[in-house]
Structure formats: structure tokens, C-alpha cells
Amino acid sequence: MTASSQARTKASPPLAEFIALVGLISSLVALSIDAMLPALPQIASDLGVQDMRQTQWVITSLIFGMSFGQLFFGPLSDSYGRKFGILTGILLFCLGSMLAMTATSLPMLLVGRVLQGIGVAGPRIASLALVRDIYVGDAMARVMSFVMMVFIMVPMVAPLVGQAVLLAFSWRAIFGLFIVLSTIAALWLVIRQPETLGVANRRPFRVQAIWRTTVAVVHHPRVLGFSITAGLIFGALLSYVASAQAIFQGIYQLGEAFPFYFGALAFGIGVASFANSGLVVRFGAERLTVTGLWGLLFFTTLLTLIAFVNKGIPPLWAFMGLGFLMFFCVGILFGNLNALAMVPLGRMAGIGAAVVGSVSNVVAVLVSALVGWFYNDTLLPILLGICVCSIAALLIVGQIRNLPDTPLE
Q: Which of 60, 194, 269, 325 suits a disulfide with 299, CB 3.0-4.6 Å?
């Protein structure tokens, strides 16, 4: 860390509180996705959705909104500070939640979800830049692993929370919960976290300058390569998440036990994130990334073969056991890929994080939409999609890992 970074670290809350705060802020994304999963059948019934594959749009529309929101909130946080970017995003997120909560049709709900996605991009991008202001390289990867551990706890419990809300109220009350939790995060940030971007390091909010910076970031081969790789892995995961309710309640007929099985697989990502915080210091982010990709490809291929033998539906024990190992590999990849993409960014951390997030999200939405459209009441489309994404990611990382990470300043 630089001397200025050390000064900011001293002014920040204790590390445990800092990780908890950043984890809560960034987990608004996972909460907005996973708490909705148990509600998809009720939403389809209330809003008259005939093709159940269209309910996947409730998930992917939020990620679609994030892709555009990040391009706005990245430079905004570079110009007016990280806290301003987070708080502005939370405000838009709440407005989108209100619109979705009062929706009378699927298009109206999707507009609310897109607005939610645009808004939640502020907390996601500005919080990443906030961490980058203080930490860099493997140290940042270590902190992000702890943040991811908090972040992953949300998918483990979010479907259960969503189901509990459904039992007591309706799917509309879930959006009310989003408003409450995001307000708590905003108040915590205002009271406890100092601004990490000094006035002297801020960049004017000029469209022409933002465009030049964006072009510079996109043309950096390591930033672009790791961003696309992150998008492929996120897209593979998103294709599973969007179909999780259909898998557990449709294919395996688990009923109200669905959140527990979903959480058990999500726990694999949490365990990996915790392990990665120590492993990354010893082995480095790049080496762990390659290992994680090979592991993901191996376990997915094995589960795909089992699925083929069983007419597309592997036994539940095989899906849960190998699925846990697959998600363990995903947990190793998430924190490291984002850290590797951001290493060269320097003072461009805000717009850089925005471009990284936008590229990865666009790739993820395209992958998820393509795989989701081929869903056929078996696991084969999802498993084959993960295999293809893993192979593509290995090819990209193999091309860029030895390139210099020349800083963009």
C-alpha cells in the first residue's frame, strides 16, 4: 500500500467492520437475485405469464440494468467520491424496488428490475473502487475473498428469506425488504465509513474524458481478458441461478426444501472464498485462477457424463456432491478474476471497475439468456454451457496471463 492508502486505512473502521460493511453493500446484488427465486411461480401466476422461461427475465433484467448503471456510476464515483456513488445508487435501487412492488404486468416489473439494476450498480462499483483505494494486488484479492465470504452468505439464506416472506405476505413484500436493508446499508456507510478518494485525486465528470478512459481500459489486454473471463464464469453461474427454482422444485420435486439445497451449493462458494484469502497470499491470484478453471471444467464434465447416462437428470446425490465442488471452484475464481482485472487501473479504479463490471455483465447476460432458452427440464443445457464457458475462459487466460500488467495512469 502507498502512504496515502495507509492513512486512509487508519481512518477507516476496523477491518472486520469494513469487510462487513462492504459485504452488505455489495450483497444487495445477490439479495436482489436470490430472494426472488421462490417467488417466480407466484409472480407468473399473478401477472399472467404463460411461458415459464420468461420468468428468468426477472433475474437477468437486473443484471442487464447493472451493465449500463456501472458505466454511469464508475465515473460518478471518480468525480464525486465513493460514498456519493453508493448513496445515489441506493436511492435509484429503492425507486426501482417501489416500481416493481406495485407492478401490474410483467413488462412493468421488468422495468422496475432494470431500474433496480442501474441503481445497485452504484453500491457494487463504488464499493469495489473503495477497496481498491486502500488495497492492491494480492492484498486486495485477500480482502475481496473475505468480502465474498460475506457476500456468499446472502445466497445461502436469501431464498429462505424470500420463501418466509411469501408464507407471511406475497412476492411484493420482498421488494419492501430490499428497501429496508438498503436503507440500513446507507446509514451505516454515512455514519462509519470515511471517504477514501481525496479531492485532489478526483476526475472531472466529462463525457469526452470518460470515453477516452473507457477506450484505454478496454484496450488493455489483461483488463479486457480477465473481464470477459469473469463474465463467462458469472454467466455460467447465472444460468444455473435463473433455473434453480425449476431444477429443485420441478426436476427434483423438493418443494419448500428448495432454499436449503440451494444454500448448500452456495456454501461451496463461501468456503472457497474463505480458503482463497489464505491461498492467494501463498500461490498468487493468477495461479489459483488457472487451477480453479481446470477444476470447474473437470467436475462439470464428470457431472455431465452422469447426466447423459441418466437421461439428462443426474441423481440428486451426484448433483449436490459434484455441484458443491463446482461452486467451490467458482468461489476461487470470483475474487481473483475481479482483482486481476483491476490491478492495472490505479487512479482509474472507478471508471475501470465500471468497464470491468459492464463487460463481464454483458457477457454473463448473453450466456445466461442463451443457455436458459435451451432449458428442457433436464440439467444438460446448463452443464454443457458451463463446460463451454470453462474451456473459453482457459483459452483466454492462457493468452493473457503472461502479458505485462502495465498500469493505466
A: 325
pTM of the model: 0.78
Q: Which residue has the higher pLDDT, 3 or 352?
A: 352
Task: Name the residue among 298, 291, 297, 299 with its Cα closest to residue 320.
Answer: 299
Angle at Cα 55 formed by Cα 53 and Cα 60, nearest 5°? 100
Q: Residue 202, Cβ neighbours under 10 Å: how many?
A: 15
Domains located in the chain, CATH noted: 14-196+204-400 (1.20.1250.20)
Largest CA distance in the chain: 62
Q: What is the dihedral of CA 223, 22, 37, 121, to 10 degrees?
A: -50
The residue behind cell 480458503 is 275
Nearest to 120 by CA among 203, 185, 173, 166: 185
Q: What per-residue confidence (pLDDT) applies to 329? A: 93
Q: Sign of the CA dihedral 351, 120, 275, 383?
A: negative
Task: Indicate left, alpha or beta for 328 from its phi (over 0: left) and psi (-120 to 50: alpha).
Answer: alpha
Amino acid at 151: F
Averaged pLDDT, 34-59: 86
Q: What DSSP string describes 24-38?
A: HHHHHHHHHHHTTGG
